Amino acid sequence: MSSQLLGWRDLPIGAVAFLSSKEYPTGEWAVFQPKIDEKKCIKCGLCWMYCPDGAYRWDGESVPVPDLDHCKGCGICEVECPTKAIQMVRV
Amino acid sequence: MCMAILKKVEQTMMALNGDEAVAWAVKQSNVDVVSAYPITPQTIIVERISEFVNNGEMDAEFIHVESEHSALSAAWGAALAGARAFTATAANGLALMWEILYITASTRTPVVMAVVNRALSAPINIHNDHSDTMGARDSGWIQIYSEDAQEAYDNTIMAFRIAEESLFPVMVTLDGFTISHTLQNVSVLPDDVVSEFVGVRRIPRIKLPRIHGDKEIPLMLNPKYPITFGPLDLYDYYFEHKVQQNEAMKETFPIIERVHREFGEISGRSYDPVFMVPYRTEDADVVILGLSSTMSVVRKIVDDLRSEGKKVGAIRLRVFRPFPADHLRKELSEFHAVGVLDRCISFGGEGGPLFTEVRSALYGLPSRPIVHDYIYGLGGRDLPHSLIRKIYEELLSARAEPEVPVVRYVGVRE
């Protein structure tokens, strides 16, 4: 086991998460990840809203950007996109 | 058995059964949340508590849930949010809580639960044995076994302190019907004395530098300082978490001892020694070691046999988790033979759970007693005087430690 990992004496008690979820690159799990066609996107923000992992970055105006380090590739955004601007592509 | 050494405060003598005694302890212990589902022989506990809450005698939230799984889930959630939480169950109800037993313990959540020991199904049986809590021995809860209603009352009050100071959930057990439904004179402390003893729940603080920087944050669910309890943990960290939990449980011995000592100071009821209570063992050749209410009958037989000149004694184990192996090695090594009373069966195992643990604790000693296992009382079957005598006679005539453990069923028809 890598020496960078904490030993039992150094872990916080109570089985609490000691890293922010940002530090877990769960995007590695994905088989498919979203690709956005910017011409079709109407910037409605539904992908951002529906994403169960909060993996979309959106400023409320521009085309939302999926954070591929955390997108697990569930494909909900593809289904919810009203203009079919999102396509799940095999990683 | 608790010895009244001195009376420090005026106490009220009440006729209570064991369940009611637990309910009174909960009523006086500044409990915030009680979640419960009824199950015989525990039901009286939560019935009384719901009456106290309904009558305005107890300022707590009483949550009616649809199952024991939810009862413990709600108590766990409430305790994570900072509440002092209590629940109660028995047998199959405890079995239904299984998943949350482990979760409560491993997130170090100080829930207190009364378990009125009852046999597990099938066949359905509402009477006493210890299969339910013995099955939960590996779940990470502290287990304190009560001998009578007075002790059930005292143990419940102490359990809140032990749980909150050690950050382990505590099961206080009492024998179904034998204790839970039997009226006894119980000394009840004044409300304000108990309230001061248990105090207000203090929340420990921890540091999570990668999330909250240098700030010490409360170990609880608090939107100001978000914490996730028990998230995914695979082969990279799960093992470390479990070892940490196990090592921490060993650190609970001094906490349990200190709380008992302080309780003795306010109540005059001294539980000393805390973990195993010896009876006439000074010059004894053989002893019976067991749990809870049965041991009061065993002591009677000790007296009878002593008057006949036989050197016998008894030891009652009060705390089964953490298992007081060091105390036991010190206490048992000099005897010729020890009979372990197991009110539980471990299917396919080499004896009952108490026996296997006692025998294992003694194995490394250079000189150790012969240890026999006596499985008795399943489903509420009585252990009459005559059979306890027979056990003592067998122990007195035991010659050598057998190669294969001796496990005997006491009081069963062939």
In short:
The complex is a heterodimer of chains A (91) and B (414). Chain A is 11% helix and 15% strand. With 91 residues, chain A is an alpha+beta fold.
Q: Can you count the beta strands of chain B?
A: 19
The share of residues in helices of chain A is: 10-25%
Mean pLDDT of chain A: 94
Shape of chain B: globular
Beta-strand percentage of chain A?
A: 15-25%
**What does the largest sheet of chain B look like?**
7 strands, mixed
For the residues shown, what is the average pLDDT of chain B? 96
Discrete helix count of chain B: 15
Order of helices and strands of chain A: EHEEHE
Distance between the termini of chain B: 34 Å
Individual helix count of chain A: 2
For the sheet with most strands of chain A, the description reads: 2 strands, antiparallel
Number of strands of chain A: 4
Explained architecture:
The complex is a heterodimer of chains A (91) and B (414). Chain A has two helices and four strands. The longest helix of chain A has 5 residues, at 46-50. Chain A has 91 residues and is α+β, with helices and mostly antiparallel strands. In chain A, strand 2 (56-57) and strand 3 (65-66) form a beta hairpin. In chain A, the strands form two sheets. A two-stranded antiparallel sheet of chain A has the order 1-4. A two-stranded antiparallel sheet of chain A has the order 2-3. The mean pLDDT of chain A is 94. Chain B has 414 residues and is of the alpha/beta class. In chain B, the strands form five sheets. Chain B has a seven-stranded mixed beta sheet, sandwiched between helices. Chain B has a six-stranded mixed beta sheet with strand order 13-15-14-17-18-19, with helices on both faces. Chain B starts with a strand and ends with a strand. The model of chain B is unreliable at 1-7 (pLDDT under 50). The A-B interface holds A 1, 5-9, 11-20, 23 and B 106-109, 167, 206-208, 210-211, 219, 227-231, 233, 236-237, 240-241, 243-244, 247-248.
